[in-house]
């Protein structure tokens, strides 16, 4: 985050004419550059010519034309001012921030400008910079809000500000206050136009119990449920309900969930009356909700979710349901089949693991899909919903028993029964969310669907009708999946292949990174970006042994992907979707449904002249061998953006293959990649820098086979004696940094870890070791080599977004050890690498950063820059100098990320590891650090800078 950048934006926020400048990105015109010189100096207008030379994006004539067009739009009232509001009091506020980030990324343009606002847990409202929207979680900036943001004295004052400074509000607050009608009621009171459903309809639909009653009244089949509220815990009545629904009061399986907490918070499985009451009380005690629903568990059913888009005119509702998605839960090993994992919970929804697979369209019979679409459309209308919504439900095949009371209700088909269970008034809008998955299947890009929603909302407000009458927005072009077609593109368009996937334990994070890079680079008109999946090898051997000489790496498969197939949950899902897409019957089925939905959409959209058409073509994936794919990159003179974490993407193999053909690529070269992939080799390469303030940690490498065959106590004694420590840190020797890392405090902990290796567990459950910890994701398959090293003690850093004393320091750090953990991005050319602003990493649970804290949006805390109360400016500068010394000694280039412990007094660095293909997810810490640069680099610019550094590799 950059306080300097924000203070500049804050002054503009206070100006009526320029209220939205805080959210302005690189598409700004000269008019706004003159108002905010920092934006101009940030290089928002830079672009590459076909020769690779950097030039100003617009010549003087074009700039004048842009300025004239902008002023013309101002005069006509054509620049739509959108207020993007995120945060809120619910546990989904982190996801809300992710949704806001996607909206911000994809709707801004010359005709539409965004101002960003945040509501904290106590319903205090703030105008925030767009830089803060790119934070990983609100906790990254919550404790700084009073000094970095424009606060409002009350919600009423906030509403008055919105009424004066924005044309329409786009709420992205999930859960309480955002979807229960609270925020909508505030906006209605002050006559502020907004996207989405009105307050009274939100109240009705958000409460699961009330919504169920209304659905039943409207003739829909509903799941039998029992309401528990407040102190009313009538065990006998609940027992009677169990009996009436043919459930065993002692062991009958049910779902227990809050009635007003979104679609996944607090949802759990219970067995019998006593367990149901216990879990309901727990939900209440945790303050999630004081009304809890007990529902029968639908055995043998399939969950689905469907996006509904209103394409009507004015107050006339014309809902069209897109292609629904089937949610398939998957289980891997006995430890994964546990009651808490038996449902589509918060973790499954938002963390990319192999525990869930999505199918769009569903693998249901056609009559069922038609019933879902018709029913969701009818429900949307009958509940008075607006603009868009997501509706969840279940399909039970005809072989499954159905409740007798449902005989004459909507949802019956020849193939089974359809039931709707949850209405989501503000659907999640993360990059690969259901909204974008389903929209891309029927021809909408991210930008196109979001702008369609905004323009549709404007039609309900007479004073905004002109904004939708002649939009200047032209949807972005589709990127053809068939790479051969790229040769027919106009001259001067540089080809870029973004490759991700692979078969290491970080392949799902790689998918997130590659998707984010691809979507950010789509913003540039002078490059043609193609997303490509490196398919897993058949036996996953490269995930643990990068020196496997038996496998022919060049024969590995690479799939060139169409737009919609990128937006998936896991690499396995993408690969399965590729195979499915080219299967003739399935392809024909999907094409038929797609055309049907698009025809339904056109019926409404053809009435709106702001809609310029669908911009995602119905394309098929194409499979190449890695060797063929590299030859293709050479033929197109493409630059390869490497987003493959671990394995051949990070150990120098892929880099070597590309160099052999003269294909430029991003990131460090072959030797640096090899060295950094091997954590022991990294330490050896830096050992001589101890006198210069760069320290290394002693390590001991063990083979998995030896760990399994020796007595655990003997291993423990040998390790602690050799490393001279009482507690150990264990991690894979040649894997990434996010899986298989654990703190071991005693021989029993080591025994648990060794057993996990032996049984090939995909997870070590929380609190399996002697010290409390969260879920530990394990490499699959287990690594052959493991590193043990002393566990480095750092002091706990705590902070709170609440404080009884307004002037109290919300950041608490005892500072006894004087060491903190940091992660630092480096960027530049070989020999002159530049350190970005270091970030202090804060562990929320346990001693090791979890996979969620590293990569799941809405979790994990990074303090960028390190607060002055922890680290002085002088120590911070010395730290950055040491980081640059490390980067240049290892001959890094392009970009990398260095993880280390730093002494807050001396700036000395104790190196942990170097990641040559670091995480590039939407919430990556590298984005925070790039935004802290002077001038700030926004995500589009940052990834373009990394691409340009790669393209210049052989110049």
3D structure, described in words:
With 955 residues, this protein is α+β, with helices and mostly antiparallel strands. Helix content is 35%, strand content 20%. The protein contains 34 helices and 38 strands. The strands form 9 sheets. Strands 12, 13, 14, 15, 16, 17 and 18 form a 7-stranded antiparallel beta sheet that branches. Strands 24, 33, 34, 35, 36, 37 and 38 form a 7-stranded mixed beta sheet that branches. The chain has a 5-stranded mixed beta sheet with strand order 6-5-4-3-7, with helices on both faces. Strand 3 (80-87), helix 5 and strand 4 (112-119) form a beta-alpha-beta unit. Helix 29 (712-723) crosses helix 30 (747-758). The longest helix has 22 residues, at 584-605. The chain is globular, with a radius of gyration of 27 Å. Residues 1-76, 332-341, 343-352, 470-488, 539-550, 801-809 and 845-859 have low confidence and may be disordered.
């Amino acid at each position: 985050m950059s306080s300097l950048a924000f203070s500049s934006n804050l002054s503009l926020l206070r100006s009526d004419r320029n209220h939205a400048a805080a959210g302005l990105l690189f598409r700004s015109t000269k008019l706004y550059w003159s108002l905010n010189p920092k934006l101009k100096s940030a290089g928002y207008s830079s672009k590459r010519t076909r020769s690779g030379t950097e030039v100003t994006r617009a010549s003087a004539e074009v700039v004048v034309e842009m300025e004239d067009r902008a002023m013309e739009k101002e005069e006509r009232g054509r620049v739509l001012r959108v207020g993007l509001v995120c945060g809120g009091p619910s546990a989904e506020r982190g996801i809300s921030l992710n949704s806001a980030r996607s909206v911000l990324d994809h709707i801004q343009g010359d005709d539409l400008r965004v101002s960003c606002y945040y509501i904290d847990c106590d319903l205090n409202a703030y105008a925030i910079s767009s830089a803060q929207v790119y934070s990983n979680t609100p906790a990254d900036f919550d404790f700084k809000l009073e000094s970095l943001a424009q606060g409002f004295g009350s919600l009423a004052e906030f509403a008055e500000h919105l009424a004066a400074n924005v044309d329409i509000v786009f709420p992205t607050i999930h859960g309480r206050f955002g979807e229960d009608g609270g925020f909508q009621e505030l906006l209605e009171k002050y006559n502020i136009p907004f996207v989405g459903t009105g307050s009274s309809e939100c109240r009705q639909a958000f409460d699961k119990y009330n919504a169920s009653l209304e659905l039943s009244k409207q003739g829909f089949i509903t799941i039998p449920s029992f309401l528990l509220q407040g102190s009313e815990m009538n065990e006998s009545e609940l027992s009677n309900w169990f009996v009436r629904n043919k459930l065993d009061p002692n062991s009958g399986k049910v779902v227990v969930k809050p009635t007003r907490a979104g679609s996944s918070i607090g949802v759990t499985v219970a067995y019998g009356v006593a367990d149901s009451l216990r879990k309901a009380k727990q939900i209440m005690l945790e303050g999630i909700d004081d009304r809890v629903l007990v529902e029968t568990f639908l055995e043998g059913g399939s969950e689905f979710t469907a996006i509904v888009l209103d394409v009507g005119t004015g107050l006339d509702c014309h809902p069209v349901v897109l292609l629904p998605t089937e949610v398939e839960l998957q289980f891997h090993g006995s430890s994964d089949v546990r009651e808490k994992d038996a449902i589509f919970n918060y973790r499954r929804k938002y963390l990319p693991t192999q525990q869930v697979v999505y199918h769009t369209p569903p693998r249901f019979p056609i009559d069922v899909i038609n019933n879902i679409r018709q029913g969701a459309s009818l429900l949307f209308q009958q509940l008075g919903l607006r603009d868009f919504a997501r509706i969840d439900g279940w399909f039970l095949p005809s072989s499954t028993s159905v409740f007798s009371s449902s005989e004459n209700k909507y949802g019956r088909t020849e193939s089974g029964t359809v039931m709707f269970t949850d209405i989501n008034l503000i659907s999640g809008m993360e990059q690969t969310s259901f909204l974008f998955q389903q929209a891309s299947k029927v021809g909408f890009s991210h930008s196109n669907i979001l702008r369609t929603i905004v323009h549709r909302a404007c039609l309900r407000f007479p004073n905004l009708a002109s904004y939708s009458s002649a939009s200047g927005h032209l949807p972005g072009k589709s990127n053809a999946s068939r790479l051969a077609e790229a040769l027919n593109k106009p001259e001067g368009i540089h080809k870029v292949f973004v490759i991700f996937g692979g078969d290491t334990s970080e392949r799902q994070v790689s998918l997130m990174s590659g998707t984010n890079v691809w979507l950010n680079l789509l913003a540039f008109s002078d490059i043609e970006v193609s997303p490509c999946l490196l398919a897993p090898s058949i036996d996953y051997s490269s995930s643990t042994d990068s020196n496997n000489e038996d496998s022919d790496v060049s024969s590995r498969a690479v799939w060139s992907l169409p737009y919609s197939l990128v937006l998936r949950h896991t690499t396995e899902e993408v690969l399965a979707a590729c195979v499915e897409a080219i299967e003739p019957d399935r392809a024909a089925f999907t094409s038929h449904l797609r055309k049907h939905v698009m025809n339904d959409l056109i019926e409404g959209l053809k009435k709106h002249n702001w809609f310029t058409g669908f911009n995602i073509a119905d394309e098929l994936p194409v499979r190449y061998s890695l060797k063929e794919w590299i030859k293709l990159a050479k033929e197109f003179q493409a630059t390869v953006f490497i987003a493959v974490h671990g394995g051949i993407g990070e150990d120098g193999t892929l880099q070597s293959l590309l160099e052999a053909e003269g294909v430029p690529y991003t990131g460090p070269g072959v030797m640096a990649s090899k060295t950094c992939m091997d954590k022991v080799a990294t330490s050896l390469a830096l050992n001589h820098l101890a006198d210069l303030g760069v320290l290394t940690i002693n390590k001991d490498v063990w083979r998995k086979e030896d760990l399994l065959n020796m007595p655990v106590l003997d291993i423990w004694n040998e390790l602690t004696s050799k490393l001279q420590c009482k507690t150990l840190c264990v991690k894979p020797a040649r894997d990434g940094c996010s899986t298989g890392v654990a703190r071991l405090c005693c021989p029993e902990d080591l025994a648990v870890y060794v057993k996990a290796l032996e049984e090939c567990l995909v997870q070590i459950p929380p609190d399996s070791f002697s010290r409390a910890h969260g879920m530990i994701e394990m490499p699959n398959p287990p690594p052959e080599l493991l590193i043990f090293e002393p566990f480095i003690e750092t002091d706990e850093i705590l902070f709170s977004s609440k404080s009884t004393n307004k002037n109290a320091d919300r950041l608490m750090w005892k500072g006894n050890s004087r060491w903190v953990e940091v992660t630092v991005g480096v960027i530049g050319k070989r020999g002159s690498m530049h350190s970005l602003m270091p970030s202090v990493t804060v562990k929320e649970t346990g001693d090791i950063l979890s996979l969620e804290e590293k990569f799941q949006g809405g979790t994990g805390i990074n303090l960028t820059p390190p607060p002055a109360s922890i680290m002085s400016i002088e120590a911070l500068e010395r730290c950055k100098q040491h980081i640059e010394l490390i980067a240049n000694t290892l001959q890094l280039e392009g970009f990398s990320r260095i993880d280390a412990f730093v002494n807050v007094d001396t700036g000395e660095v104790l190196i942990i590891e170097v990641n040559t293909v670091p995480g590039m997810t939407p919430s990556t810490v590298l984005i925070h650090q790039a935004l802290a640069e002077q001038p700030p680099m926004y995500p589009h610019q940052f990834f373009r800078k990394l691409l340009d550094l790669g393209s210049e590799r052989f110049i």
